[in-house]
Amino acid sequence: MNLNDLIIRIHNDWEDTDVLPVIERVLRSLSIQKEYLQDTPINLRELCEYSGLSNTENELVYKATNYLVHPSIHVLNLRYELYDNGLFEITADEIYEAQKDGALYHPVTGREIPNFENEVTLSFVLSHEFINAEGAIS
Fold this sequence. Notes:
With about 140 residues, the protein is α+β, with helices and mostly antiparallel strands. The chain has one domain. The chain has helices at about 5-15, 20-30, 35, 45-50, 60-70, 90-100, 115-120, 130; strands spanning about 75-85, 85-90, 105, 110-115, 120-125.
């Protein structure tokens, strides 16, 4: 990934929209903190506050986040996490199977997780491609 190419792509995709400045601010914050954020779940609300975004811009932040998670952009990875006497990462395939079968099983103990939809949370982590990207975001 080349950050200069990424910025051009973002401008082409979001030119003349209210989302463009939000993506730019979030991306700049991620870039500045990428060594600190490596392999760390990102709290998007805190990141947005750090970027100077207000709560009234939530819809724009959601659009920006969806865009940055998209496989063709791949700045953020979506991660499913189960908090149950520790933190356990759950794969998208496991979530898919659980939704299909109606049951999610603990990755270590094998016991069924009741109401797993309420127990699994989403978080975001920086992609390795973004962490290792060439170029700079100004």
